[in-house]
Amino acid sequence: MTEALTAPYVLEYTYRRSMGPVIGRFLEGLRYEILEGVKTADGRVLCPPQEYDETGAPTTGEFVQLRPTGVLKSWTWVAEPRANHPRKTPFAFALVQIDGTDSCITHILDAKSPKELETGMRVRVRWAKEKRGTIQDIECFEPSSPILLGPVHLDFSVMPGVHQTAYLRGFEQGKILGGKCKATGKVYVPPRGASPVDGQPMDEYVEVADRGVLTTFTVVRIPFEGQKLTPPYCFGAIVLDGSDLPFYHLISGVAYDEIRMGMRVKAKWKPREEWETSVENILYFEPTGEPDAPFESYSEHL
Amino acid sequence: MSERCAVIGIGQTEHRESRKDVSLPGLLREALFRALEDAGRTLADMDAIVIGTAPDMFEGVMMPELFMADALGAVGKPIFRVHTAGSVGGSTAVVASHLIQHGVHEQVLTLAFEKQSEANAMWALSPAIPFQPQLVAGAGGYFAPLIRSYMARHDAHPDAGPMVAVKDREHGLLNPNAHLHLTQTLDEVKAAPMLWDPIRYSETCPSSDGAVAMVLANDKHAKGCKNPAWVLGTSVRTERTFMAGRDQVNPGAGQLCAKDVYDQAGIDPRKDVDCAEIYVPFSWFEPMWLENLGFCDPGEGWKWSMEGKTRIGGQLPLNMSGGVLCTNPIGASGMIRFAEAARQVRGTAAAHQVDGAKIAIGHAYGGGSQFFAMWAVGSKRP
Q1: Is B286 helix (H, G, I), strand (E, B) or coil?
Q2: Under an 8 A CB cutoff, do B242 and A192 touch?
């Protein structure tokens, strides 16, 4: 048997469409980003407008200007667009009910993923940059959010004050300084500009130990915006030996389920050559291995 | 004090994770017109507006009360903003009640709000400040160590907190305004992940958008109303953040605030209070505040929670609306407590009504357990 013959053949011609008074006006409007519907005899609004409604009755010729927004009534995701599809990248075919109308327009909907789409969601028209009086003057629909982004950026200088500065300078030398309250003799870490008891500055500095009792703690397992540390991490309240109220720092060097109230801990310092003017010169506090402090010894610090 | 003060109208929004259907003024107007309608009043009848919301960083709008003056009907009238961190909803209502009680105004509109979805409170509460490690991790990060301290101090059964979560979520099912409508078993609560050990996801409050408004009136205006909630006592108390020996589990300011309210109202918290709406953003704060507010002795709170004494129908129903554990528009959360207490004594709490409630407490706290606001309201004119 001889092989059947085959040859490529292209049939191509540009027809000239008469749009008529209704569709014609609709498409002409799109050139100017005007979206219109038409009223039916029974008072409904159709968009796209038609010369007649689905019962065959003529529409009224009364046009209604519409806002370029609507509701997604139904959609199907096109994950692998074909050559003749209107977009090269994945998109959805969509039925959109323009606000103020009683019918749907078929068009395409731009989204990164079908996860962004939900029947009933608000969508808006994205107009084509160049318009030719065709339905493609609407480039596509896109999800519409009522949210306006409001970025805020504030620049500050942090001035820790005289006593906090003295405290931070202490860290440059590997020392933790507290301030003695004149009224009570209690030692606060860091020293305060005003004692909570008599309002006097705590300008008598005393060096406290870089070890103490972990009174209470939490293990943070929740991520959040602006977080510098990667969860999980533990921080706790430590009453350093020689001080009288808790100071907060990270607890590490021990399994989380072995961390306990009353555990004796000591500072794990960064290598000296990395020291800066910062509490971060201490990487974290770790167990000393000493016996736990009895509850009564630190219960007033909770 | 020359005048009596009563709550004659209450309005709340629908509370949800995101009320992106309304603007900030739109959210407030939803609550305020409901309150005015409830009171049978119009904006024109209001002599002054007292508004509260959380710190501006939470929404990123500086002094929103001024930009919303016209939306709140405040043009040509006094408007005051109250700032007391998380307790603000409560202290705002207290300030409004004082304007009435001291004869400054006859009818005052007070409201509180938060649109958490516009921002990120965790971010706003957790700044990474120079010279120190970023340790703070939201409100839960601050309060988790205090909860651990409470549990250790009183050797509390570990199920007490989870049982509060179960109870408040059950109560929330009765309240159509609640943000969360969840059915949760004790096992489900305990199986949830720890966010800030020992606080589980299931034992923490949601992040909500919402607003609440109340119309407060003096004797002259309240007399004609069907079911006013009379203000019997109000108090706001504060304490230091950093103080050697400060008891953060059972703060002195909270005790003073409660005593002040009971003394003004002439009531015994263990005998005369029918129910209370108290600020419990994390489950364990129910037993902690039960003790702090003097409803029971220290160490007894967790037992009360476990014994069901705080359920509707129990000895002292707490957070009948589902509380902060079901609805948390931060700046409004305190005033919702105050308003829900008023609903109870007005007999308008619908499905979460405590039968025959005559005296109820509204309570709020904020900051590092250092700002407290509270009121007692009653069905009988004092």
Answers
A1: helix
A2: yes
Distance separating alpha carbons of residues A150 and B367, to the nearest angstrom: 27
Give B140's contacts in chain A (Cβ within 8 Å).
218, 222
Per-residue confidence at B357, pLDDT binned at 50, 70, 90? Answer: very high
Q: Report pTM.
A: 0.88
Task: Give the H/E segment covering residue B6.
Answer: strand B5-12
Strand partners, B233: B376
pLDDT at B273: 98
List, for residues B53-81, the tens digit of each pLDDT value: 999 888 888 899 988 999 999 999 999 99
Using CA atoms, how far residue B149 sits from B285, B302, B324, in Å, is 12, 13, 22
**CA B227 – CA B40 distance, rounded (Å):** 12
Q: Kindly list the distances between the CA atom of residue B104 and the CA atoms of B2, B132, B213, B218, in Å, as whole numbers in the listed order.
A: 10, 48, 20, 10
Taking only the tens place, the pLDDT of each residue in A78-101 is: 999 999 999 999 999 999 999 999
> Do the beta carbons of residue B326 and residue B167 sit within 8 Å?
no
Interface probe, candidates A250, A276, A302, chain B, greatest B C-beta count within 10 A: A302
Query: Would you state the structure tokens that stand for residue B72, as one six-digit string?
Result: 């709140």
Contact (CB<8Å) B132/A279: yes
Question: For the structural domain made of B5-116+206-378, what CATH number should be given?
Answer: 3.40.47.10
Measure the CA–CA gap between A83 and A80, rounded to whole angstroms.
10
> What is the Cα gyration radius of chain A?
36
CA angle A253, A255, A257 (to 5 degrees): 145
